[in-house]
Amino acid sequence: MTDMKTQQHQHIAELARTLGHAHRLNLLEQIAAGELAVEQLAQQCELSVANASQHLQHLRRAGFVQTRRDGKRVFYRLSPGPIPQVLAALGQLAAFNRAAIRELMSDSVSAPEHLEAISREELLERLQDHSVTLLDVRPAEEFAQGHLPGAINIPFTELQQRLGELPASHEVVAYCRGPWCVFSRDAVTALKAGGFRARHYLQGVEQWPGLLQD
């Protein structure tokens, strides 16, 4: 059962990787409205025909689209299956994340004492003089794949039980995936409730070059 579940997750990951490009999502959105030729898709997505064809081949190999040839022209249509629902769900998730970011930014203006973010420049200075503890509150698996230099990992779900592992003399800067990830904000709340001086790094790992890997 474990092997079967792993294989299933690997297949899902491969599908997700195929969708992990803005041009491919745009192409699928156009094709969802009806069958179109490569030239039409390239024009509507503002791509060269060669570039559009390359992305379409990735989508075809992953089973998202099917082709039909009419003379020299190749037409694309969606493959059978819940592909429109997948695209709609991704759109809903993106809208949810954008709303979360807007709420987070609004909090920083209306209630800055609750947010207290630290800039990248200040964080670098504080790390150099060893006056801050950098706390990664993502799951251990994500931490192992890459993390900010000098960070320690305590997943947010374990933070309350592991506060004793943090030096009380240092200010703690918590971070997670990026601006839309609320773990770092919630971690700051938990840290302050535990008597720590705490802020969070809003950008998280998304915009930090040269992540360390274990």
UniProtKB/TrEMBL annotation:
Organism, by scientific name, is Pseudomonas wadenswilerensis
Molecular function terms in GO for this entry? DNA binding; DNA-binding transcription factor activity; thiosulfate-cyanide sulfurtransferase activity
Pfam entry (one): HTH_20
Show where the Rhodanese domain sits.
128-214
Q: Give the keywords, sorted.
A: DNA-binding, Transcription, Transcription regulation
Q: Pinpoint the HTH arsR-type domain residues.
A: 4-98
Highest taxon of source: Bacteria
Q: What is this protein called?
A: Biofilm growth-associated repressor
The answer, when asked if Transcription regulation is one of the entry's keywords, is: yes
Gene3D superfamilies xref list: Rhodanese-like domain (3.40.250.10), Winged helix-like DNA-binding domain superfamily/Winged helix DNA-binding domain (1.10.10.10)
Q: Which PROSITE patterns match?
A: HTH_ARSR_2, RHODANESE_1, RHODANESE_3
Q: Does the keyword Membrane apply?
A: no
Signal peptide as annotated in the record: none
The cross-references to InterPro entries, in alphabetical order and at most eight, read: ArsR-like_HTH (IPR011991), HTH_ArsR_DNA-bd_dom (IPR001845), Metal_resp_trans_reg (IPR051011), Rhodanese-like_dom (IPR001763), Rhodanese-like_dom_sf (IPR036873), Thiosulphate_STrfase_CS (IPR001307), WH-like_DNA-bd_sf (IPR036388), WH_DNA-bd_sf (IPR036390)
